[in-house]
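Predict structure. Chain length: 387.
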Amino acid sequence: MSLTISLANTNIHNSQSVPSAFNHVSSFPLFNAAEVNLTMPALGLGLGFYGMENEPYGTYPECGDEPHIDTSGPPGPPPPGCGLNTQKAVYTWLTKVGGRRLDCANSYYNHKSVARGIEQSGINRTEIFILSKVGPTFGLGFNDTIEQTMDILQELQTSWIDLLLVHWPMMKHPAQSYIPKTSDPSCNMSNSLTYNEKKCRLSTWSAMITLFNRGLVRSIGVSNYNITHLQEIIDAGMLLPSVNQVSFNPYNYRTGRADLLRFCQKNNIQLVAYSPLGVPDVQQYPVTYEGEATGMYPTLFQDPVIISLARTYERTEAQILLRWIHQLGVASNPRSMNETHMQENLDIVLHPFSITDNDMMRINNLAQDTCKVDPDWFECVGDGNPP
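Prediction complete.
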């Protein structure tokens, strides 16, 4: 029996619980491959952590992975792992802060801990917007995508996912050395005779559409896709993604994100920002390149423009960055294991303020973290020539 046929009788609307449309919280509407009238909470909690040494809760770098059972995959923290950190962050976000969106992924290796945090919170599943992703530490292609989704549902202990994304437009994350296994010849990077990136993407997207049409997911989208990748879907005449999630902050806006934002808005694709504050617990931006100042500072929090605006608006530097993103019409997923920071992040929509057009432009014009000056950081964009 094929995987597609095995999904025939599965539909979230057969459940006695009807999921929320989330239009009672500050949200962005979803179009294209999304349920009618479905909206996505504007602020989510990012759950992709970088710590791998069993760092305690709230210390840097933040650690949230459970131990990895499959030792052929990427390295993870040794037992007992950091699943309890993830559980505590989810519980805190849902109960003490009042957040309602969780940004998960198969490759974050903490779905089970997310499920425990949700159960501990006592919040009804219908009131929680769960976003998850397939790949890239797991194989892509039609059957592999469906198999991953079934595993994700089981690990999260839920009968539906509110938004499912294809995590990367290729089989292998730029920062990983190993090649995931796949049953799809077009996705098999080990066989140069059959591997075809474009065919792999479209095969994977076809599976995503199947999952959406069967009702296992309420909306589908992509992540880290550029305009060329999105155009492939358009040219194939397939249902368009509802969301494209990418790294998005002032240091990569002009060189890689402004054009992408315009393209997504034109095609009713909601852009979502990960690393909206940079990645200050792991990555510092280069302040010089070949003996010349780049104009950047080690973190966005140290940029004088951001510091000045925080004082002007009597807000934190993080709130300035998140509000700038929000006013551009972009949702965001800041990571945090700090209750105060979580609350400050959510406050940009609970207690909103407006950044003036002139100040928005000041942020737009900050220096850019291009791949020319920062080639080893996988979130770098552009060639050093801002449009």
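Summary: The first strand starts at residue 27 and ends at 29.
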